[in-house]
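Good morning,

Attaching, inline, the C-alpha cells for the sequence recovery test we're adding to the shared suite. The designed sequence is right after.
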C-alpha cells in the first residue's frame, strides 16, 4: 500500500476524529490499563505485551496480570527511548515534542481492542453516542505484537483512518488498510524456503500454533515447499489442547522427515518444547520462526540434546548507542499513569509499593523504597547485546517521525494526494546512519538474521548469528551462511539429510512424485550424468550410452573385417578358389593339345577359368572397411566376371547343341557358329552387363553408409546400393543368361543346378541377415556358385588329365 502510512497520518491530522461532546453514561466498575504516559505536541500510541501468560487468559476482569516478562517489556521502553531521542534531534520534527501513551494488552484480543479504542477516542469509561469532532488523542499506534490482535485492531483503526505500525512480523492475508509493516511474515517464509533449498531438504514437517499466524504461515510454506519438495506432515495445536500436543509429538517421532519447521509464539513454544522433551524426540533439525527463535533457553539443560543446533529466523540485530544508560536510568514514579514502571521495579527487586489494597496489611511484604539500584541487577530488561524485536520498535517510531516530518514540511500543492503527493518517500536514514527501505506497498524490505542455538562451555545458551537473508536490491537478494560457525546437533556434526527417497545416482532419473520417488534407470541410448536428474538425455546419432548410462560413448562401428574370424575364413576360401582356378588354368594350358582340352573348346575354357578367378577375387572387395572404390568395385566386378562365366557356359552349351545337330545328314549349322561367332556372343553378353554397370555407377553409385537400424548400440558400416533398380538389373541379367536347355552334358547341368540353388536361397538370406552377416551371405553366394562352376565343369576333366591319362585319347573320348 503505497504511501499508506503518510496518507493515513495526514488524514488524521486534517479530519477530526471522534471527541466526546458530553458524557452520556458510565460503565459499572473501573478497568484501569497498565500504561506509560508522557504528554507532547503530537501523541503516539502504543500497544505492547508485558506480562508472562502461559495460556490465553479468560477475560473476566477479575484477575490480576501475571509477572512481567522483562525481555518483552523492554520493547515498550524502547518506544519511549526512540521518542526521547527524536525530541532531542533538531533536524527531525523541530519545535515539536512527541508524547506517548502506551497500554498493555494483557495478551488478550479484547483488551487490545479496548486499548485501541481508548487511544482513538481518548476515553476510557465514558460512553457517548454523539458525533465526534476535534483532533484525536494520538496520530498513530505502534503495535500490537500478536498477529491475531493486529488484524482485529487494524480493521477498527481503518474506520478512523488511523495507521497501525507493526514491529513484529505479520501475515497480511486480509490486505488490511492503514497498516505499515516492519517485516511481513511472507518474507519469513521466503527465508525458510531458501534455507531448505540451500541444504536440499526436500522432506519437511511443519508445526504451528492454531491461530491466524500459524495457519497462514503454514499454508504459505506448504505452497512453497511443494514447488521443490514434499511436506511429511502439517499440524496445528492450541496451547490448551494437551491431547493434540501428544498426538503431534507421536507424529513427529514416527515421521522420517529430519527437518521440522515450527511457527510458534513464546507461550506456545513453552508447552510444545516440554511435550517434545517428554517424548525424548531426538535426531531432528528444528527451524524456529522469529517469534520464538530469540529464546535459546528453550534448549537449555536436558533439552539441549533435542533442540540444540536449532536454526532460527530472527529480525536483524541492531546496536543502539546510549540505550543501556537509558534503561539504567529507569526509576519509579508516583504518577499513576506510569504504573508499568512501578510494576517493573516490583519485579526487579521483589518488593511492593503501597496501594489501597496493601496499606491495610503490610506484614510479610517487602516494601519498595525507590532507592534500589537498578544497575545492580542483571536481567533481560537491561540486556542490550541482542536487540532484535526491540530494534524493530525503534525503527517503527522513526518511521512515524519521518512521515510526520515529511507532512509538516510539505509545500502547498504537494499534499498526500494522487497527483501531487509529498508523502511518497520509500526510505529514510536514521541518526545511526542506517537506511530503511520500503517497497511500493509500504512494506519494509526484509532482512533477517539466521541464528543457531549453541551452548557455551559454561553452559550458557546463546543464539549465534550464522547467516543473513536480505531481499534488498543492494544485497543482491541473497542468502548467505558462515558454514563453519554452525553447530549441527548430530553424531556426525554434519549437515543432516532430510529426503523421502535417497538421491538417484547418475544413470537414472527421478520418477514421480517429486519427493517419494523411485529411481528409474535410463533407457538404452539415454544418459544422466548428474545425481537426482529429472530426465535422461538422448545420445546423438553416432553415440550410445555406456553400460552404466552415465555418458555417451562412440558407437562401435561394425563391418566384415579381415581380422574377424568370419572375414578371415571367407578370405582364405576366396584365395583358395582363386588358386584352384589358376591351377586348373595351368593344367589346361599344359595339356592344351590333349583331346580332353580340345574337345571342350579350350579357348572358352581358358576364358571361363579367368572369369572364375576374378569371381573369387572380387569377393575380397566385400571384406574390410567400405570405401567409395570398394563399394563400386565389389558389385561391378562380380557382375561382369560372373556374366562372363555364364556367357562362356552358354556358348559352350550352344556349341555342343550345334555339334550334335551337325551330325545329321544335310545339316551345316556349325559354319554359322564358328569361333568368331562364339567370341562375339561372349563379348555381346558381357558388354550388355558392362553397360548396365556403367549406367548404375553414373546415376546412383553405391557409397559407404552408416546404418543404425539393425542395432542401436552399433553402427553397421556398409555399402548403400544407391539404386536398387541398378542392382536388380545386374542380378537379373546374370540369371537371364542362363542356358535354358542343359543338354551338353551332366556336368554343365549339375553346375547350373548349383548356381540356381545358391542364388535362389541368397535372396531371403540376404534380406534377413543383419549387419556384417549380410555381406557374409553375399560373399558365400559368390564363392558357392563359383566353386560350383569350377568343380562341376573342370573337376572331371582334371581327373582324367591327371589321374586317368589313358582315357585322355581321342579313341577313349569318342567311345564315351
Amino acid at each position: 500500500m503505497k504511501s499508506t502510512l503518510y496518507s493515513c497520518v495526514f488524514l488524521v491530522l486534517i479530519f477530526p476524529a471522534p471527541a466526546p461532546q458530553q458524557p452520556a453514561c458510565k460503565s459499572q466498575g473501573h478497568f484501569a490499563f497498565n500504561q506509560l504516559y508522557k504528554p507532547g505536541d503530537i501523541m503516539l500510541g502504543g500497544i505492547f505485551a508485558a506480562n508472562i501468560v502461559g495460556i490465553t487468559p479468560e477475560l473476566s476482569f477479575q484477575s490480576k496480570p501475571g509477572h512481567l516478562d522483562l525481555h518483552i517489556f523492554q520493547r515498550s521502553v524502547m518506544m519511549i527511548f526512540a521518542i526521547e531521542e527524536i525530541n532531542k534531534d533538531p533536524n527531525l520534527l523541530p519545535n515539536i515534542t512527541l508524547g506517548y501513551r502506551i497500554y498493555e494488552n494483557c495478551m488478550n484480543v479484547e483488551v487490545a481492542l479496548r486499548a485501541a479504542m481508548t487511544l482513538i477516542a481518548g476515553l476510557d469509561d465514558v460512553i457517548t453516542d454523539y458525533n465526534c469532532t476535534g483532533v484525536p488523542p494520538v496520530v498513530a499506534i505502534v503495535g500490537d505484537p500478536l498477529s491475531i490482535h493486529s488484524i482485529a485492531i487494524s480493521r477498527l483503526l481503518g474506520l478512523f483512518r488511523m495507521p497501525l505500525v507493526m514491529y513484529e512480523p505479520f501475515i497480511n492475508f486480509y490486505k488490511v488498510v492503514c497498516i505499515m509493516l516492519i517485516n511481513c511474515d511472507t518474507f519469513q517464509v521466503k527465508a525458510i524456503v531458501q534455507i531448505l533449498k540451500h541444504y536440499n531438504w526436500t522432506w519437511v514437517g511443519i508445526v504451528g500454533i492454531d491461530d491466524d499466524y500459524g495457519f497462514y504461515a503454514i499454508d504459505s510454506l506448504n505452497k512453497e515447499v511443494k514447488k521443490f519438495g514434499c511436506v511429511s506432515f502439517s499440524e496445528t495445536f492450541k496451547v490448551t489442547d494437551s491431547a493434540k500436543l501428544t498426538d503431534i509429538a507421536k507424529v513427529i517421532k514416527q515421521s522420517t522427515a529430519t527437518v521440522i519447521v515450527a511457527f510458534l509464539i513464546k507461550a506456545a513454544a513453552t508447552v510444545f518444547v516440554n511435550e517434545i522433551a517428554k517424548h525424548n524426540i531426538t535426531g531432528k533439525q528444528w527451524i524456529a520462526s522469529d517469534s520464538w527463535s530469540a529464546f535459546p533457553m528453550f534448549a537449555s539443560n536436558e533439552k539441549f540434546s533435542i533442540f540444540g543446533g536449532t536454526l532460527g529466523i530472527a529480525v536483524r540485530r541492531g546496536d543502539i548507542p546510549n540505550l543501556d544508560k537509558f534503561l539504567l536510568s529507569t526509576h519509579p514514579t508516583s504518577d499513576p499513569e506510569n504504573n508499568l514502571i512501578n510494576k517493573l521495579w516490583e519485579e526487579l527487586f521483589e518488593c511492593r509499593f503501597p496501594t489501597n489494597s496493601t496499606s491495610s496489611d503490610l506484614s510479610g511484604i517487602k516494601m519498595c523504597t525507590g532507592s534500589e539500584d537498578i544497575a545492580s541487577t542483571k536481567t533481560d530488561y537491561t540486556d542490550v547485546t541482542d536487540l532484535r524485536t526491540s530494534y524493530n520498535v525503534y525503527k517503527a517510531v522513526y518511521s512515524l517521525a519521518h512521515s510526520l516530518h515529511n507532512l509538516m514540511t510539505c509545500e502547498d500543492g504537494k499534499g498526500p494526494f494522487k497527483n501531487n503527493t509529498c508523502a511518497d518517500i520509500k526510505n529514510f536514514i536514521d541518526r545511526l546512519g542506517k537506511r530503511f527501505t520500503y517497497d511500493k506497498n509500504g512494506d519494509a524490505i526484509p532482512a533477517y538474521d539466521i541464528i543457531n542455538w549453541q551452548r557455551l562451555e559454561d553452559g550458557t545458551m546463546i543464539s549465534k548469528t550464522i547467516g543473513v537473508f536480505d531481499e534488498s536490491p543492494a544485497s543482491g537478494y541473497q542468502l548467505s551462511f558462515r558454514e563453519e560457525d554452525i553447530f549441527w546437533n548430530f553424531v556426525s556434526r554434519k549437515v543432516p539429510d532430510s529426503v523421502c527417497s535417497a538421491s538417484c545416482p547418475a544413470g537414472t532419473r527421478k520418477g514421480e512424485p517429486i519427493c517419494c520417488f523411485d529411481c528409474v534407470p535410463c533407457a538404452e541410448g539415454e544418459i544422466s550424468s548428474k545425481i537426482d536428474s529429472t530426465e535422461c538425455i538422448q545420445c546423438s546419432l553416432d553415440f550410445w550410452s555406456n553400460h552404466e548410462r552415465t555418458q555417451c560413448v562412440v558407437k562401435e562401428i561394425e563391418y566384415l573385417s579381415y581380422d574377424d574370424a568370419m572375414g578371415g575364413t571367407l578370405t582364405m576360401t576366396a584365395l583358395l578358389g582363386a588358386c584352384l582356378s589358376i591351377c586348373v588354368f595351368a593344367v589346361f594350358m599344359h595339356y592344351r593339345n590333349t583331346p580332353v582340352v580340345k574337345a571342350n573348346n579350350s579357348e572358352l575354357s581358358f576364358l571361363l577359368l579367368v572369369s572364375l578367378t576374378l569371381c573369387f577375387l572380387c569377393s575380397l572387395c566385400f571384406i574390410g572397411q567400405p570405401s567409395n572404390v570398394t563399394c563400386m568395385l565389389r558389385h561391378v566386378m562380380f557382375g561382369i566376371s560372373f556374366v562372363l562365366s555364364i556367357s562362356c557356359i552358354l556358348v559352350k552349351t550352344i556349341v555342343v547343341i550345334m555339334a550334335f545337330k551337325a551330325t545329321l545328314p544335310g545339316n551345316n549349322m556349325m559354319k554359322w557358329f564358328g569361333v568368331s561367332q562364339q567370341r562375339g556372343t561372349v563379348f555381346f553378353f558381357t558388354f550388355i552387363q558392362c553397360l548396365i554397370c556403367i549406367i548404375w555407377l553414373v546415376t546412383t553409385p553405391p557409397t559407404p553408409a552408416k546404418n543404425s537400424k539393425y542395432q542401436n548400440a552399433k553402427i553397421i558400416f556398409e555399402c548403400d546400393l544407391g539404386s536398387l533398380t541398378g542392382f536388380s538389373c545386374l542380378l537379373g541379367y546374370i540369371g537371364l543368361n542362363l542356358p535354358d536347355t542343359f543338354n551338353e552334358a551332366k556336368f554343365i547341368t549339375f553346375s547350373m543346378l548349383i548356381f540356381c540353388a545358391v542364388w535362389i536361397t541368397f535372396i531371403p538370406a540376404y534380406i534377413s541377415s543383419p549387419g556384417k552377416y549380410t555381406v557374409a551371405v553375399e560373399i558365400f553366394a559368390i564363392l558357392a556358385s563359383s566353386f560350383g562352376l569350377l568343380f562341376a565343369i573342370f573337376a572331371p576333366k582334371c581327373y582324367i588329365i591327371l589321374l586317368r591319362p589313358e582315357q585322355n585319347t581321342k579313341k577313349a573320348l569318342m567311345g564315351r
